[in-house]
Amino acid sequence: MLRPLLYLVALITLAGAKQTLTASTELDISSCPITIYGQRYEQAFVNYTSQNLVICFKGFYGSGTKDDCILGPLPDSKNAEFDQFQRIPLLETIVQYNVPTIKTRMDCYLSISYQHKGGYVSSAPSLDNRVMSEPTANNIPLPVCIFCSQTTLALIKFGPLSVTVTNTPSSRQTRGYLDISGCRHSGAVYKPATEVNSPETCFSLTCDEDLVLKTSSCGPMDRCLGNGSCIPAALYDSIFNPKLDLVCTVTGPALIDFHGLLTSVRDRCTYSLLSLPSAPDFQVLANFQERHRKDVSFLDSVTLRLDGPGVQIHLKQGGRVQVNDAPLSLSTSAQMVHGVELSKDLTGVTARVSVSNFTIYVFFDGYTMQIHLQGPVGSALHGLCENSSRSLADLRVPESNPDSCLIQYNDTEESMINCTKMTEHCNLLKKEPFASCDINPEPYITACTTTLCSYPDRDALKCQFLEAYARTCKLQRNATLVDWRSKAKCSFCQDRTCSDHEFCGEKSVGGDNRCFCRAIFASKYRDQNALGDPTVCNQTSGSLTLVNCLLEDEGLDYIALHLKDPTCRGHMDEETHLVTFSFSDINRCGTEVMNTISNHNSSSSIITRKDQVFIDFSCVYMKEAMKAFKVRSSSIIKVSTSGVWNYTLTMKAYTDAARTRPVDSNTEVRLDEKIWVELKTEGLDGDLISVVTESCWATNQESETGSLRYDLIKNGCANPADPTVTVEGNGEGTSSYFSFNMFQFSGKSGNIYLHCKLQLCIKQGNSCIPKCNGARTRRSIRSRYEASALISMVWTN
Ligand SMILES: *[C@@H]1O[C@H](CO)[C@@H](O)[C@H](O)[C@H]1NC(C)=O
Ligand SMILES: *[C@@H]1O[C@H](CO)[C@@H](O)[C@H](O)[C@H]1NC(C)=O
Ligand SMILES: *[C@@H]1O[C@H](CO)[C@@H](O)[C@H](O)[C@H]1NC(C)=O
Ligand SMILES: *[C@@H]1O[C@H](CO)[C@@H](O)[C@H](O)[C@H]1NC(C)=O
Ligand SMILES: *[C@@H]1O[C@H](CO)[C@@H](O)[C@H](O)[C@H]1NC(C)=O
Ligand SMILES: *[C@@H]1O[C@H](CO)[C@@H](O)[C@H](O)[C@H]1NC(C)=O
Ligand SMILES: *[C@@H]1O[C@H](CO)[C@@H](O)[C@H](O)[C@H]1NC(C)=O
Ligand SMILES: *[C@@H]1O[C@H](CO)[C@@H](O)[C@H](O)[C@H]1NC(C)=O
Ligand SMILES: *[C@@H]1O[C@H](CO)[C@@H](O)[C@H](O)[C@H]1NC(C)=O
Ligand SMILES: *[C@@H]1O[C@H](CO)[C@@H](O)[C@H](O)[C@H]1NC(C)=O
Questions:
Q1: What is the CATH number of the domain that holds 617?
Q2: pTM for the whole structure
Q3: pLDDT band at residue 778 under the 50/70/90 scheme
Q4: Site to substitute for ligand 4 among 261, 389, 391, 392, most atoms within 8 A of C-beta
Q5: CATH code: domain of residue 644
C-alpha cells in the first residue's frame, strides 16, 4: 500500500529544480528550515564517505561533527539529486497516516535521491524496534533499504515538527518514517510527551506535546538525598561528610577560641594559636605588643611558621607581609609563597594554606586576626585557639620571646572612659542586624566591654569587636549582616606602614589614621620632654634625630622644620620614621639651634616646643670646635728647689698617647681633641722618691687661685665629673702623665691656664700610688709628702 504512494511522491518531485551533488556540498535550506529534536537548522552539509552518504546540519561530517547527521547507504556514484518543494498535499496525508503524532499541515519538503545497488543488510535497525524514550541526537538511524536500486532520503517539515522519510522499494520494508521532533537537555534528546524521573539524582524532565521542555533538580546549593528529596548542601555535608568549620578570633587583648570561649592576654609575648599534631612544622603564632597604654596589650602581628622556624610569614599592621625578614608586596591577586596563598584587599591580608587535610585561612587587618579552619572531624588540634583555658605559659613560644615580655607595667588611670556608654555600644551585638546571625555574641560582647572599659576608645577599637562578629557570621554561616557599619564609623589602617616602635591608629580628629608611638617606647622621651635622641656631635659635623610619631603627637610636621638656613631640612627614614637633621656644613646651616629649628606656623604652643627641641639640639661646642688652640710656649720648665731636693720639672703636651708628637707653638689643638700632658722630673733618685701629681686644674686667669676653676685631677685622681680625663703612672716614678679633651670656659674665649701641683713622696712599696677607685684612704699618702711644686702652662687661641 505504501509503495505506490511513495512512487507517486517521486513523480511529484520531478517538478522541482534539481541540484546534482557530485562532491561534498553545503546546502542552503533556509527556505525550508528543518528542526531536529528542537534544534532548527538553515544549512545542510553533504559528505560522501567510504561507507555512507551523510547529511549533517551543524557542519561537515567529521571528527568534531557527528551529531545531528543522517547516514544513508553509499550511492553507486557521486551524483545524488537534491531538491526542495513546497507543500505536497498527498505526501502530507501519507505522513499523517503513518506518523500519528503529526497532525499539522506540511510546510515543505527536502529530498536527496540516488542509486544504490544494495545488498541484504540484516543488522539494519528497524524503526519498529527502536526504543523511542531514549534516542540520541547522534546518527539518527534510518532504515536501510534492502534489495533496493534507488533510495530517497527526505526531510519533511511540519511547523515545529519534522519527519525523515526513506524510500523503501522493498515490499518487506513498509515503514520509512521517523519523527525527529522532540526536546534536548544536556546532550540527550527526548520525544514529545516524554517524562523522565530519577529519584537517585532528583532529576525530572518533561517534553510535552508542544515540545516545551521542563526540568527540575536540586538547586546549586542543594544536594539530592537519593529518594527525590533535596536538602541544603551544608546540611547534606554535615550528615554525609561531616567537616570541622571553626573560627578563632583575636582582637585587642581578647581571644575567642574555636569553641566560643574567651580569654585575654596581658603581656607582650608570642603565643601559639594553632598547631596540628599531624603537621608538626606548621604553626600560627600571635605576637602581642602595647599600644596607647603600657598596661594593655594588643594583638600586633601574626606569624605563620611553615617549616618549623625555617620559613616564617609575618602579617603586620598596614597590610604588610614579611617572608622571613624580607618584605613582600602583595596585591589583590593571590600570590603563592612557600605553599601559602597570600592575598590582600581593602579589609586586610588573607593567607590560605592547606596542611594535612586541613584548609586554614588566616586573616589579619592590623587589629583583628581570625583563623578559619576546615578539615576532617575528629582531628587533634593544639594551641590557644583550640583551648583558650590552657595555661598561657604552656603556649608561650620560648624562642620568640624576650625575658621582658612578661613585665607588667602600670599606667595612669583613664579618666575619659565612659564604661556605661561602651557597654551600650557592645550590646549592639544583641540587636539587629547582628541578631539575625545565630552565633552566640556573648564572648564578643564580653571581650568588647572588658577591653573598652579599660582602654580608651581610640583607633575605631569599638568597631573591631563588631567587625570580628560580622566576619565570623560570614565565615561560618555565610550570613551578610546588612549595613551594620552605619551604626559605627570605622577606619582601617590598610596601606599605612608603621615602624617597629609604632602602631597605626586613628587620629583624634578627622577620622584619618597615622602611626602612633608605642607607649613604652615613647615613655623614655616623654619623661624627658624630648622629641628624639640627644644630638650626636663631633668636631666637624653633627646630627639630630627626632622621632616622627612624637613630632606628630605635638602637631608638628617634620616637612615644616628646618635649620637656620631654610634649605637645611630633615630627612625621614622610610623604615624607622626617624627624622634626621644633619649639618655637616655648620657655617651654612647655622648652629644656634634654638633659633633655627622652627615651625612655619608660629603659635604660642609651638614656641614652647621649640625650647624642647633646643634642649635636644644643642651641639654647644660645635662652632667652638672650629677654633684652634695653641700652647703659648711649648712647655714650661721650672727649676724647683725644695728642701734637700734639687730637680727640674717639665710639663709638656702631646697629641698622641705614645707622647711622640709634642704640641709646639705651631700645633693647633681643637676643642674636644684629646691631648696628653707629661710631667717629668730630672735629678731625683727614683729608688727613693716618687712624684705624685696631687692636682691639676684650669683657670681663665693667670693666677692659679682664679675664681673660675675647672678641675682635671683632684687628690691624685682624675676628676670623676670629667670622663675625658685619664691619669697614668701617677706616684709610680719620677714622671707621670694624664690626658684630657681640650675645652674652653663657656662663654669665655681668652687664654686657658693649666696648673699642676706635684708632691714628692718617699717610696715604701706602692704606698705613693693614689688609690682612686672609690678608696677613702688616699689621704694617708699625704703624711709622706715631702715637698710640693706648682707648674703651669698657658693655652691661647
Ligand atoms: C566532508 O566534506 C568536507 C568538505 O569537503 C571535508 O572537509 C570533510 O573532510 C569531509 N568529511 C569526511 C568525513 O570526509
Ligand atoms: C527521603 O528521605 C528522607 C530521609 O530519610 C526523608 O526525610 C524524606 O521524607 C524522604 N523523601 C521522600 C520524598 O520520600
Ligand atoms: C587525609 O585524608 C585522606 C583520605 O580522607 C587519608 O587517607 C589521609 O590519611 C589523610 N591525611 C592526613 C595527613 O591525615
Ligand atoms: C582546656 O584546658 C583546660 C586546662 O588545661 C582543661 O581543664 C580543659 O579540659 C580543656 N578543655 C578542652 C575542651 O579540652
Ligand atoms: C602597679 O600597681 C599596683 C597597684 O597599684 C602595684 O601593686 C604594683 O606594684 C604596680 N606595678 C608596677 C610595676 O609598678
Ligand atoms: C556616659 O554615657 C552615658 C550613655 O551614653 C551617659 O548617659 C552618661 O552621661 C555618660 N557619663 C559621663 C560621665 O559622661
Ligand atoms: C553564600 O551566600 C551567597 C549569597 O547569599 C551565595 O551566592 C553563595 O553561593 C553562598 N556561599 C556558600 C559557600 O554557601
Ligand atoms: C663626624 O661625623 C660625621 C658623620 O657621622 C663623619 O662623617 C665624620 O667623619 C666625623 N668626623 C670626625 C672628625 O669624627
Ligand atoms: C600651617 O598653616 C597653614 C595655613 O594655616 C596650614 O595649611 C598648614 O597645614 C600649617 N602647617 C603646620 C605644620 O601646621
Ligand atoms: C742644684 O743643682 C744644680 C746643678 O745640679 C746646682 O747648680 C745648684 O747649685 C744646686 N742648688 C742647690 C741649692 O743645691
A1: 2.60.40.3210
A2: 0.46
A3: very low
A4: 389
A5: 2.60.40.4100
